Protein backbone atom coordinates (compact mmCIF):
# COMPACT_ATOMS: atom_id res chain seq x y z
CA UNK A 1 0.00 0.00 0.00
CA UNK A 2 2.85 2.43 0.89
CA UNK A 3 4.70 1.48 -2.27
CA UNK A 4 1.65 2.29 -4.40
CA UNK A 5 1.32 5.73 -2.73
CA UNK A 6 4.90 6.66 -3.55
CA UNK A 7 4.61 5.53 -7.15
CA UNK A 8 1.22 6.95 -8.08
CA UNK A 9 0.43 9.83 -5.72
CA UNK A 10 1.93 13.28 -6.16
CA UNK A 11 2.62 15.71 -3.32
CA UNK A 12 -0.31 17.87 -4.36
CA UNK A 13 -2.75 14.92 -4.04
CA UNK A 14 -1.14 14.03 -0.73
CA UNK A 15 -1.97 17.54 0.50
CA UNK A 16 -5.62 16.97 -0.36
CA UNK A 17 -5.70 13.61 1.38
CA UNK A 18 -3.98 15.10 4.41
CA UNK A 19 -6.66 17.84 4.67
CA UNK A 20 -4.44 20.68 3.46
CA UNK A 21 -6.42 21.31 0.32
CA UNK A 22 -9.67 22.16 2.08
CA UNK A 23 -7.78 25.01 3.73
CA UNK A 24 -6.33 26.40 0.49
CA UNK A 25 -9.38 28.58 0.07
CA UNK A 26 -8.54 31.85 1.84
CA UNK A 27 -11.41 33.59 0.08
CA UNK A 28 -11.64 35.73 -3.02
CA UNK A 29 -11.34 38.93 -0.99
CA UNK A 30 -8.02 37.76 0.39
CA UNK A 31 -6.93 36.68 -3.09
CA UNK A 32 -6.10 33.08 -2.16
CA UNK A 33 -6.18 29.93 -4.28
CA UNK A 34 -9.38 28.21 -5.23
CA UNK A 35 -10.45 24.85 -3.93
CA UNK A 36 -8.45 21.99 -5.48
CA UNK A 37 -9.53 20.42 -8.72
CA UNK A 38 -10.36 16.70 -8.64
CA UNK A 39 -7.07 15.83 -10.34
CA UNK A 40 -3.90 17.60 -9.24
CA UNK A 41 -1.13 18.57 -11.63
CA UNK A 42 2.04 16.50 -11.40
CA UNK A 43 4.36 17.73 -8.68
CA UNK A 44 7.59 16.57 -7.13
CA UNK A 45 6.72 13.79 -4.71
CA UNK A 46 7.54 14.26 -1.07
CA UNK A 47 10.45 12.20 0.12
CA UNK A 48 8.35 10.69 2.87
CA UNK A 49 5.03 10.91 4.60
CA UNK A 50 6.77 12.89 7.34
CA UNK A 51 7.65 15.57 4.76
CA UNK A 52 3.99 15.91 3.75
CA UNK A 53 2.91 16.19 7.38
CA UNK A 54 5.51 18.86 8.10
CA UNK A 55 4.42 20.75 4.98
CA UNK A 56 0.80 20.62 6.20
CA UNK A 57 1.83 22.13 9.56
CA UNK A 58 3.66 25.00 7.85
CA UNK A 59 0.77 25.59 5.46
CA UNK A 60 -1.83 25.78 8.22
CA UNK A 61 0.42 28.11 10.18
CA UNK A 62 0.79 30.28 7.07
CA UNK A 63 -3.01 30.57 6.78
CA UNK A 64 -3.28 31.56 10.41
CA UNK A 65 -0.56 34.22 10.06
CA UNK A 66 -2.18 35.50 6.86
CA UNK A 67 -5.49 35.95 8.64
CA UNK A 68 -3.61 37.84 11.36
CA UNK A 69 -2.15 40.08 8.60
CA UNK A 70 1.38 38.98 9.49
CA UNK A 71 2.27 38.66 5.83
CA UNK A 72 6.05 38.38 6.19
CA UNK A 73 5.82 35.38 8.48
CA UNK A 74 3.01 33.84 6.41
CA UNK A 75 5.15 34.07 3.29
CA UNK A 76 7.99 32.14 4.95
CA UNK A 77 5.56 29.44 6.11
CA UNK A 78 4.10 28.99 2.60
CA UNK A 79 7.57 28.87 1.05
CA UNK A 80 8.67 26.22 3.55
CA UNK A 81 5.55 24.17 2.84
CA UNK A 82 6.32 24.34 -0.88
CA UNK A 83 9.92 23.22 -0.29
CA UNK A 84 8.76 20.20 1.66
CA UNK A 85 5.98 19.14 -0.71
CA UNK A 86 5.59 21.27 -3.87
CA UNK A 87 2.10 22.05 -5.10
CA UNK A 88 1.36 24.67 -7.73
CA UNK A 89 -1.61 25.85 -5.65
CA UNK A 90 0.73 27.15 -2.92
CA UNK A 91 2.41 29.39 -5.48
CA UNK A 92 -0.79 31.41 -5.78
CA UNK A 93 -0.73 32.16 -2.06
CA UNK A 94 2.94 33.12 -2.29
CA UNK A 95 2.34 35.42 -5.27
CA UNK A 96 -0.64 37.17 -3.65
CA UNK A 97 1.40 37.99 -0.53
CA UNK A 98 4.34 39.24 -2.61
CA UNK A 99 1.94 41.37 -4.62
CA UNK A 100 0.62 42.88 -1.40
CA UNK A 101 4.19 43.56 -0.28
CA UNK A 102 4.86 45.43 -3.56
CA UNK A 103 7.46 42.85 -4.53
CA UNK A 104 6.23 43.02 -8.11
CA UNK A 105 9.03 41.01 -9.74
CA UNK A 106 8.67 38.03 -7.39
CA UNK A 107 4.86 38.15 -7.58
CA UNK A 108 4.89 38.11 -11.38
CA UNK A 109 7.39 35.25 -11.41
CA UNK A 110 5.26 33.11 -9.08
CA UNK A 111 1.99 33.96 -10.85
CA UNK A 112 3.56 32.68 -14.03
CA UNK A 113 4.81 29.55 -12.29
CA UNK A 114 1.30 29.00 -10.90
CA UNK A 115 -0.38 28.97 -14.31
CA UNK A 116 2.48 27.09 -15.99
CA UNK A 117 2.76 24.37 -13.35
CA UNK A 118 -0.99 24.10 -12.88
CA UNK A 119 -1.70 23.81 -16.60
CA UNK A 120 -5.23 22.71 -17.37
CA UNK A 121 -5.94 22.15 -13.68
CA UNK A 122 -6.12 25.90 -13.09
CA UNK A 123 -9.80 27.00 -13.30
CA UNK A 124 -10.49 29.30 -16.23
CA UNK A 125 -11.72 32.20 -14.09
CA UNK A 126 -8.64 31.92 -11.90
CA UNK A 127 -6.38 31.81 -14.96
CA UNK A 128 -7.96 35.01 -16.33
CA UNK A 129 -7.51 36.70 -12.96
CA UNK A 130 -3.84 35.75 -12.79
CA UNK A 131 -3.23 36.84 -16.40
CA UNK A 132 -4.74 40.26 -15.61
CA UNK A 133 -2.39 40.55 -12.64
CA UNK A 134 0.60 39.62 -14.81
CA UNK A 135 -0.37 42.24 -17.44
CA UNK A 136 -0.62 44.89 -14.71
CA UNK A 137 2.70 43.93 -13.15
CA UNK A 138 4.53 44.14 -16.48
CA UNK A 139 4.29 47.93 -16.31
CA UNK A 140 5.67 47.96 -12.77
CA UNK A 141 8.83 45.93 -13.27
CA UNK A 142 12.01 46.43 -15.26
CA UNK A 143 14.23 43.97 -17.09
CA UNK A 144 18.03 43.96 -17.08
CA UNK A 145 19.98 42.00 -19.68
CA UNK A 146 23.14 41.00 -17.82
CA UNK A 147 26.16 40.06 -19.92
CA UNK A 148 29.35 38.60 -18.43
CA UNK A 149 32.63 38.06 -20.29
CA UNK A 150 33.22 34.74 -18.48
CA UNK A 151 30.91 31.72 -18.57
CA UNK A 152 29.98 29.84 -15.40
CA UNK A 153 30.11 32.87 -13.09
CA UNK A 154 27.54 33.22 -10.28
CA UNK A 155 25.26 36.25 -10.74
CA UNK A 156 23.62 37.95 -7.76
CA UNK A 157 20.97 40.67 -7.65
CA UNK A 158 20.98 42.77 -4.47
CA UNK A 159 23.16 40.05 -2.88
CA UNK A 160 20.60 37.31 -3.65
CA UNK A 161 21.09 34.58 -6.29
CA UNK A 162 19.58 35.50 -9.62
CA UNK A 163 16.75 33.34 -10.95
CA UNK A 164 16.02 34.37 -14.51
CA UNK A 165 13.42 31.68 -15.16
CA UNK A 166 10.97 29.72 -13.01
CA UNK A 167 13.52 27.90 -10.88
CA UNK A 168 13.49 27.97 -7.10
CA UNK A 169 16.61 28.34 -5.00
CA UNK A 170 18.71 28.74 -8.13
CA UNK A 171 21.98 30.53 -8.59
CA UNK A 172 22.05 32.19 -11.99
CA UNK A 173 25.20 31.38 -13.90
CA UNK A 174 26.51 33.24 -16.90
CA UNK A 175 25.47 33.30 -19.63
CA UNK A 176 21.97 33.98 -18.33
CA UNK A 177 19.34 32.55 -20.71
CA UNK A 178 17.22 35.70 -20.63
CA UNK A 179 16.98 39.17 -19.06
CA UNK A 180 16.28 39.38 -15.33
CA UNK A 181 13.03 40.89 -14.07
CA UNK A 182 13.59 43.34 -11.21
CA UNK A 183 11.64 45.76 -9.06
CA UNK A 184 12.05 49.49 -9.72
CA UNK A 185 14.71 51.25 -7.70
CA UNK A 186 18.46 51.07 -7.17
CA UNK A 187 19.68 47.59 -8.12
CA UNK A 188 23.07 46.09 -7.38
CA UNK A 189 24.43 43.32 -9.61
CA UNK A 190 27.38 41.25 -8.43
CA UNK A 191 29.23 38.58 -10.40
CA UNK A 192 31.57 36.09 -8.72
CA UNK A 193 33.82 33.34 -9.99
CA UNK A 194 36.79 31.63 -8.39
CA UNK A 195 40.06 32.91 -9.80
CA UNK A 196 38.57 36.28 -10.78
CA UNK A 197 38.10 39.58 -9.02
CA UNK A 198 34.41 40.30 -8.22
CA UNK A 199 32.51 42.47 -10.69
CA UNK A 200 29.77 44.89 -9.62
CA UNK A 201 27.32 47.21 -11.37
CA UNK A 202 24.82 49.64 -9.81
CA UNK A 203 21.74 50.60 -11.85
CA UNK A 204 18.68 52.78 -11.26
CA UNK A 205 15.56 51.47 -13.03
CA UNK A 206 11.87 52.31 -13.14
CA UNK A 207 8.80 50.41 -14.27
CA UNK A 208 8.80 49.19 -17.89
CA UNK A 209 12.54 49.86 -18.28
CA UNK A 210 14.48 47.46 -20.47
CA UNK A 211 18.21 48.01 -20.03
CA UNK A 212 21.42 46.03 -20.37
CA UNK A 213 24.78 45.95 -18.67
CA UNK A 214 28.04 44.11 -19.24
CA UNK A 215 30.34 43.10 -16.39
CA UNK A 216 33.90 42.14 -17.29
CA UNK A 217 35.65 39.95 -14.74
CA UNK A 218 39.43 40.39 -14.40
CA UNK A 219 41.63 37.43 -13.57
CA UNK A 220 43.08 37.52 -10.07
CA UNK A 221 46.08 35.38 -11.09
CA UNK A 222 49.28 36.66 -12.69
CA UNK A 223 52.77 37.63 -11.65
CA UNK A 224 53.80 39.98 -8.89
CA UNK A 225 56.15 42.72 -10.04
CA UNK A 226 58.15 44.58 -7.39
CA UNK A 227 59.48 47.94 -8.55
CA UNK A 228 61.87 49.42 -6.00
CA UNK A 229 62.03 53.15 -5.43
CA UNK A 230 65.48 53.88 -3.90
CA UNK A 231 65.57 56.87 -1.59
CA UNK A 232 69.37 57.31 -1.78
CA UNK A 233 69.45 59.43 -4.97
CA UNK A 234 66.65 61.62 -3.61
CA UNK A 235 68.43 62.15 -0.29
CA UNK A 236 71.81 62.78 -1.91
CA UNK A 237 70.45 65.29 -4.41
CA UNK A 238 68.60 67.08 -1.63
CA UNK A 239 71.77 67.29 0.46
CA UNK A 240 73.78 68.55 -2.51
CA UNK A 241 71.17 71.22 -3.12
CA UNK A 242 71.30 72.38 0.50
CA UNK A 243 75.11 72.53 0.39
CA UNK A 244 74.99 74.52 -2.84
CA UNK A 245 72.67 77.07 -1.28
CA UNK A 246 74.96 77.29 1.75
CA UNK A 247 77.97 77.78 -0.53
CA UNK A 248 76.24 80.62 -2.29
CA UNK A 249 75.34 82.36 0.97
CA UNK A 250 78.86 81.97 2.37
CA UNK A 251 80.35 83.26 -0.87
CA UNK A 252 78.10 86.33 -0.78
CA UNK A 253 79.13 87.04 2.82
CA UNK A 254 82.81 86.60 1.91
CA UNK A 255 82.51 89.12 -0.93
CA UNK A 256 80.67 91.56 1.34
CA UNK A 257 83.38 91.24 4.01
CA UNK A 258 86.05 91.83 1.37
CA UNK A 259 84.31 95.00 0.20
CA UNK A 260 83.99 96.20 3.79
CA UNK A 261 87.73 95.66 4.25
CA UNK A 262 88.48 97.71 1.11
CA UNK A 263 86.29 100.51 2.39
CA UNK A 264 88.12 100.48 5.70
CA UNK A 265 91.50 100.69 3.99
CA UNK A 266 90.34 103.75 2.01
CA UNK A 267 89.11 105.52 5.11
CA UNK A 268 91.57 107.87 6.89
CA UNK A 269 90.13 107.54 10.38
CA UNK A 270 90.00 103.73 10.41
CA UNK A 271 91.35 101.83 13.40
CA UNK A 272 93.53 98.77 13.55
CA UNK A 273 90.89 96.83 15.42
CA UNK A 274 88.29 97.46 12.69
CA UNK A 275 90.73 96.38 10.01
CA UNK A 276 91.57 93.25 12.01
CA UNK A 277 87.88 92.39 12.35
CA UNK A 278 87.21 92.81 8.62
CA UNK A 279 90.25 90.70 7.70
CA UNK A 280 89.02 87.96 10.06
CA UNK A 281 85.54 88.03 8.48
CA UNK A 282 86.97 87.75 5.00
CA UNK A 283 89.12 84.74 5.96
CA UNK A 284 86.26 83.05 7.84
CA UNK A 285 83.65 83.43 5.09
CA UNK A 286 86.14 82.46 2.43
CA UNK A 287 87.03 79.30 4.34
CA UNK A 288 83.35 78.43 4.86
CA UNK A 289 82.73 79.02 1.16
CA UNK A 290 85.58 76.71 0.20
CA UNK A 291 84.45 73.97 2.59
CA UNK A 292 80.81 74.18 1.49
CA UNK A 293 81.82 74.31 -2.16
CA UNK A 294 83.89 71.16 -1.76
CA UNK A 295 81.05 69.45 0.10
CA UNK A 296 78.65 70.47 -2.66
CA UNK A 297 80.88 68.93 -5.33
CA UNK A 298 81.14 65.76 -3.26
CA UNK A 299 77.36 65.65 -2.76
CA UNK A 300 76.77 66.06 -6.50
CA UNK A 301 79.16 63.21 -7.17
CA UNK A 302 77.42 60.95 -4.68
CA UNK A 303 74.01 61.87 -6.11
CA UNK A 304 75.21 61.10 -9.64
CA UNK A 305 76.51 57.74 -8.49
CA UNK A 306 73.25 56.71 -6.83
CA UNK A 307 71.27 58.03 -9.79
CA UNK A 308 73.09 56.13 -12.50
CA UNK A 309 74.18 53.06 -10.52
CA UNK A 310 72.70 49.79 -11.95
CA UNK A 311 69.23 49.23 -10.50
CA UNK A 312 68.38 45.93 -8.87
CA UNK A 313 66.41 43.52 -11.02
CA UNK A 314 62.66 43.42 -10.63
CA UNK A 315 61.27 40.53 -8.66
CA UNK A 316 58.58 38.48 -10.34
CA UNK A 317 56.45 35.74 -8.87
CA UNK A 318 54.60 33.67 -11.49
CA UNK A 319 51.12 32.37 -10.80
CA UNK A 320 50.35 28.73 -10.26
CA UNK A 321 50.28 28.10 -13.99
CA UNK A 322 53.52 29.98 -14.54
CA UNK A 323 51.69 32.59 -16.63
CA UNK A 324 51.18 36.29 -16.30
CA UNK A 325 47.64 37.45 -16.62
CA UNK A 326 45.60 40.65 -16.51
CA UNK A 327 44.49 42.29 -13.29
CA UNK A 328 46.36 45.04 -11.45
CA UNK A 329 47.14 45.01 -7.77
CA UNK A 330 49.33 47.68 -6.19
CA UNK A 331 50.87 48.01 -2.77
CA UNK A 332 53.69 49.89 -1.00
CA UNK A 333 56.16 47.87 1.06
CA UNK A 334 58.74 49.75 3.21
CA UNK A 335 62.27 48.42 3.15
CA UNK A 336 65.69 49.38 4.49
CA UNK A 337 66.45 52.74 2.89
CA UNK A 338 63.77 52.30 0.25
CA UNK A 339 60.07 52.08 -0.52
CA UNK A 340 58.90 49.23 -2.77
CA UNK A 341 55.88 49.65 -5.03
CA UNK A 342 54.43 46.19 -5.61
CA UNK A 343 52.01 45.44 -8.40
CA UNK A 344 50.16 42.34 -9.54
CA UNK A 345 49.56 42.24 -13.28
Low-confidence stretches: 1-47, 313-328, 332-342
- Structure summary, number of beta strands: 13
Helicity level: 40-55%
Number of helices: 9
Task: Output mean pLDDT.
Answer: 76
Which outline best applies? Answer: rod-shaped
Question: Widest sheet: strand order?
Answer: 3-2-5-7
How large is the share of residues in beta strands? 15-25%
Q: How far from one another are the termini?
A: 66 Å
CATH superfamily of the largest domain: Tetratricopeptide repeat domain
CATH-derived topology of the largest domain: Serine Threonine Protein Phosphatase 5, Tetratricopeptide repeat
Whole-number total of structural domains: 3
Order of helices and strands: HHHHHHHEEEEEEEEEEHHEEE
Broad CATH class of the largest domain: Mainly Alpha
CATH architecture of the largest domain: Alpha Horseshoe
Amino acid sequence: MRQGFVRHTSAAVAFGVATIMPMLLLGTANAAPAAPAPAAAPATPATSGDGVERARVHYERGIQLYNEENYDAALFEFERAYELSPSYKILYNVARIQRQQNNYAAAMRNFRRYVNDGGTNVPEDRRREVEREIDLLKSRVATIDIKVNVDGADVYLDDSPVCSGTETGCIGKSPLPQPVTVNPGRRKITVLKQGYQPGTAIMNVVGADSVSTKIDLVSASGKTVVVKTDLKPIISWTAAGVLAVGTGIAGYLAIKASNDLSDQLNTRDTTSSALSKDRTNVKTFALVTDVLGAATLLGVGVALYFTFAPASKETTTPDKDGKADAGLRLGVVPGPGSLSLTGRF
